[in-house]
Amino acid sequence: MSLEEIGRAAEFLLVEDNPGDVRLTKEALTESKVKNNLNVVGDGEEAMAFLRRQGKYAEAPRPDVILLDLNLPKKNGREVLEEIKADPSLKRIPVVIITSSEAEQDVLRTYDLHVNCYVNKPVDLEQFVKVVQSIETFWLTIVKLPSEIEE
Amino acid sequence: MDDLNSVRAISDQELSDRLALIQLSARDIELLKNLHVRLKGIRMDFLDEFYVQMLQFEETSRLLSDPEQVERLKTKQAAYFERLIEGRYDHDYVKDRVQIGATHHRIGLKPQWYIGAYHFYLAWLFEQMQHTPHTEDKECFAALLAVIKVILFDIELAIDAYFQADHDMLRLMAQVFESNVEGVLISDTRGRILHANRKVSSIAGYSHEELLRLPVTTLLAPQERNVFVDYWQGINVGSPWQGETYLQKRDGKSFPAWVNVSAVMDDNNRVTHFVIEFSDISAYRLAQEALQQRTEELARSNKELEQFAYVASHDLQEPLRMVASFTQLLARRYEGKLDADADEFIHYAVDGATRMQTLINDLLAYSRVGTRVKPFELVSLEIVLQKALDNLRLAVEESGAEIVRPTLPTILGDTVQLTQLFQNLIANAIKFRGEASPKINISVSCSDDFWRVELNDNGIGIAPEFFERIFVIFQRLHTKEDYPGTGIGLAICKKIVERHGGTISVESEPDQGATFIVILPKIKSEEVNQ
Fold first, then answer.
1. Where 4-aspartylphosphate occurs along the chain (chain A) (predicted)?
2. Domains of chain B
3. Which of A100, A125, A128 best tests the B interface by mutation, with the highest count of B CBs <10 A?
C-alpha cells in the first residue's frame, strides 16, 4: 500500500545544522504534491535520539526517509549513517546524503557505509528546489518504501 | 719568485774563482787563441755525424724533427765551438753559456745529450792535430789540455744553469704544494705520509711532524675506512678516485670533505706514490642544508597558501550560497509585488551574489590545480585533445570552428588537468573569435628535452602589453558584456603547465590572431623504466 492509501502524511527527518538550508528545504517541499511532514534536528546526537525515540523525542514518528547532511556538530553525518546502518531496527530506512561536499572520498565512503543515495547541494536556488523536489518525488511516489510494507 | 727563464748573474769574484779552479792560465789562453786561428774556416763535419747519432734516440729525435731547425742548430753549434777556443772568457761568455743551460732545461734536453757533443768535438780536434809536426807535440798537448779545461768550465756552467732552473721549478712547485687551499698529502705505496702541506695540519689538527709516517687512513673517519679499501683497488691501477667522504681530525671529530686520490706512476707504470687532496666542505654542507631547509619551508608555505585558498573558497561558498539562495527566493516571491526600487535592489543583490559565486567557484578550481593532485602517469596528448574537443563539441559546432590537429605525443602528467588545459585554450580561441569563423591550427615540434605545442587562431588577438597580464588570475581585457568570464581560464592553464614542469606564453597582435605556445617536458628515459 502506498502512503496515500495508508492515509498518513510522509515523514521526513532532515538532519541539518544550517537553518538557512532547513528553510530552503521547507520552501521547496511546500510546493509538494504529496502530503508530508518535515521533522528537523540540528546535529547528529539529536538525530539518533529522534530515531531511537529518546527523551523529548519519545513520541517522534518513525521517518520514511532520512535527509542527512555530512558536516554536523557533535556527531557527524558519517557516524550517524554508520549507526543507522548498524542498527537492525533502523537500517531499512532510506538515507539520502545531501551535502555541499564534492570530495570523492566522501562519496565513496558513504556508499561503503550503505547510504541509499548521495546528492550534492546545488549552489543555485532553482537547482536546489529542483533537487529537493526530485528527491521527494522519487522517494515518495516512485520508490517502494519498506515502511509501506511494515505497516 | 724569479722568472724561470731569467739567467742567474755571476759576479766577478765567482767568475775568477771558477777560472782559478780549472787553473786556466794566460799561457792556456794564448794556446787556445793560436788553435782558433789555425782551425778558422775548417768545416766542422763531425756535427753531421753528431746529429745522425742524435736522431736515433726517441727523446732527441722528437726535438729535431724539423730539418730546417737542425740546420740552424748546426750553424749555432759550430759558432759555439769556435767561440770555445776564442780565448775570451768574460761575463758575456759566461752569460751565454748559462743561457744555453737554461734553454736546454726549458726545451727538456737533458745534460747527457749535449755533453756527448763535446766528445765529437774533441775527437775531431785530435784528427786535425795529427797533422802537426812532431816538434810541436808538446805545444799541441798543452793546447788540448787547455781545450779540455775550457770544456769542463763550459759543462760546469751549463749543468749549473740546468739544475738551477730545475731547482727554481721545484721551488715553485713546492710553493704551490705548500700554499694550496686544499690539504695535499703525498704517501708512499704503503700509504704512509711522506709530505703534507700546511693546510693538512690546519684542517686536521696534526703537527707536520706527527703527520710524517702516519698511515693516510688515520685521516679517514672510521666508518669510511672499509669503503676506501675498495677505492684503493681502482686507484692502484691508475684511475683516480674523487668524491665526498668523512675525514677525521686529530681530536676524533669527523668532517665532510671533498677528496681526490690519485696514484703517481713511474715510466714503467708502477705506482710510486699516492697523492691525496682534500678540502673541508663543512661550510658548504651547512649552506646546502640551510638552502634545503629554506626550500622546504617555501614549499610548505606555498602548500599552506594553496590549502588556504582552497579552504577559504570552499568555506566561503556556504554562506554565499545562503545569500544567493535567499536573494533569489526574495526575487521569486516578491518581484513585482513591491515598488520599482525594491525590484532594482533585489536585482543587484541577486546579480552580485551570483557573480561572487562564479568567482569563488573559479578560485576553487584554480586552487584545486595545486591541491587535488594525482601522481603523474603516462598521458597521450592525442586522447587528451580528443576529450577536450568532445567536451567542446557544442561550441565547436555552433561557431563552425575548423580545427587542424597533428599527431600529438605521450607525456607524463595528469590527464584531467591536461584535458582542461587544451579545453581552456581551444574554448578561448572560439570565444575570442573575430568576424570570420574560427580556424584553429594546432602544431607540435620538439627539442632535446621538450615538446612545443602551438595553438594558433584567427581571432581578435592580444596587444603585446597584455601578454603577461592574461595569465594572471581574474585579469580581464574585455567587459563582461563583450566577452563573459571571470579571467580564470588562462591562469589555470599557466598553473597546470607549470605543475607539469613546462611554460606557456603567447605571441599575437591585435586583429592578427594569437598563438599560444605550450612547452612540456618529454619523458626522460629513466622515467620510462619506472
1. 69
2. 12-178 (1.10.490.10), 183-280 (3.30.450.20), 287-371 (1.10.287.130), 377-528 (3.30.565.10)
3. A125
